[in-house]
């Protein structure tokens, strides 16, 4: 690292690294060749760039101080010619990839020609055709200069330039992405670049013997400052891999980190997603040689980072021996020489904050941020910045410069943001990326992330572009969604399915039906740091250049949706549209899945009743759940056409008009991961899971529904009968494991018993994920408290008829009369609009309450026996009748799962017992469920490395360790030991309860709920054993 004052410009930087160590330098891999790198020491870089600078100075048209455009694809070419141009006394401008569209290419090159005043352009001869006929720019082949370098004399240009260069001189020009119009050229000075390097270095953990790795194109400022110049600043090796090789094989990045002991690299969010998928899909053998112990910083910028992705990737990297918190979301721009804020506590802090996207951390030293347009710093507004890292103006563009800075000298980033109480920056989105249609504001990046999370087989993940456009100058603005396809042009079925998923997802989230345009992957290429060309796509769409795609998609969509074919479908369509209102009514068709429309459990009950009244028939709710479209429901309602369902013997009367019982309800059909099975709560229905299922995008989701809702169906008579029934249904739908099961309340007991049956089958039938949503293992004490009245009152709360399930009733009489009195009391106390909405009869309510009471009664003597291998317990505020606090609920009840499960993890979630799955809290629950669910299935390919620590050694645990959110029950016989001098870290580690519990693999244990006092009066603390992923 340079001593203060010794380095005033980049020439000083090169001189110092050459003088300090002539063995370090550049390792660069050619395209599609990751076995034969080219090596160039920093001393050799000085010699080579000096010779080529001399050759460059002798070329016709050379102008000292002029701009020279570098259009080179290879990393080593870019590095050598960057320094050669600097040595020659000129300003290098690193060119970005040229637009594919010929008209856009011509405009782009004409813009650069004018902006840089007829610059010389250095390029390889193979790229000449990309310029010829598109630009009047002077082209010079680097092969010609390389041949000429041996015939020219050399002088000590480095020392000349060291003397001549001033700190504020223009050093280089970097092009902005041009995603919102013509590219601007950011002027970077020596002083600005060196200030940026000092700021980055202040948050690094770089040590001798490690290296930095770059795979991003050198036209991006991150490649230049985050890797190339920072490696020189620290006197370390730098490794370069071509972008195409890493994008094609994300695991290559990890293999190179292992091979070269890389400590720092950069990856935008789209590569992080690809990296996670590659790790999950890889077999154990391909991961055996990956060891990420050297990695300290995986910096991510350019796109928002979803917290769930951060959590899952952090777990995956730690299974490959990376330290915790290596993933560091950052904020930076071309105008700031890349990163200037870094999140050093991701993902633990982000999970605790409950945000959907990771924060970008705190500013480095000397860098200042403020949020304009709000009175308080933590309010949302426009992010404005200043500091020595920030540029002063755009090259040859006074208008853009004037509009970029405020009157008091702050640079307006154009990003919407807020700063939290800890000083962390959170971006909401770019102002120009906000789309406003019919009074609804849509953040393009948010919708793109939402669509990417669907993992649709017909679309390239992370290649969605959303923007507003006008089909004609007189039209209102529409929402366009452009996506890259994976299917063949004649695969109409896949095109329809993808189109339907995009439309229904957008309708669900924003109430707007989008204009969907499928394109070839080549037409929606991201920039080197992952930015989407929204402006260019909008222009192409409005100019009719995507017309063929639009017409093909419209034709297929028209064929996909059909008109009602009979009176039943027509009536059903009318009822659906009336039920869901004007916002999305026009987009509901005969083949539109109802579960894609964002409806709630109450919506379904209301819809069912409207159908019954409108068609004058009885509609079992299970049929509505199982028939996801009007087309399917219409077929089901025809008496002569019944589908072959999963049948279950029923003991009802033979002469009854019974509906064949099928416990399985498909809540989500798409996804390639292990299916998730959800077991109903004590009321028997699975409606409570609809919101959760909507948010799980990577796997099919099935609900298991109790028997007894339909005419002629008897109730289950025992827990064993219910479990046997659900076991057979699961095996018919999913014959082989691994299995993933979860139960809400009473359903957790059923899931536990079913898991024992599944895992008892031997090899290959693993239950890798088993979850309890707020239920302890021992429940008979509670079951014995519940009489028919209690069950009816709890059902009333479930349906939104009462707000207090423990409310006292004033019903009179006994037997059926008392039950009728209870129901009347419930109906009298219920909000009239809710009763009208549900159109629930007293007979329906009584039948449902009977079923709930039957379910509770058959578990009055239940005791858990046997054991399962794993259990995740998601807990919230309990009912007051069972515990007075979460702590009591956890310590005295939930922790007893450890008696019947080998590996138990506890996760605190929002809400109360009856609201933990509601709209308000389900997002947080989904985030916490998703991480262990995916990790549990993936862990089979590589177990976590586990070690045992004592409290007395906590001083050796890094402050960024995941220990801040772990917990385990206290040992049965605590001992006392003398605390170490550095016990000050203990309060950071030992907590009375976990924050939003951070998960790190199946082998992780949690720290006790009890707290070791940081400064005990007697000088001793309780002893505890901690199992942590190292």
Automatic annotation (TrEMBL):
Domain Carrier, residue spans: 563-641
Any single GO BP term: fatty acid biosynthetic process
GO molecular function per UniProt: very long-chain fatty acid-CoA ligase activity
Domain of life: Eukaryota
PROSITE patterns, sorted: AMP_BINDING (PS00455), CARRIER (PS50075)
Record's protein name: Acetyl-CoA synthetase-like protein
A Pfam family it matches: Thioesterase
Organismal lineage: Eukaryota, Fungi, Dikarya, Ascomycota, Pezizomycotina
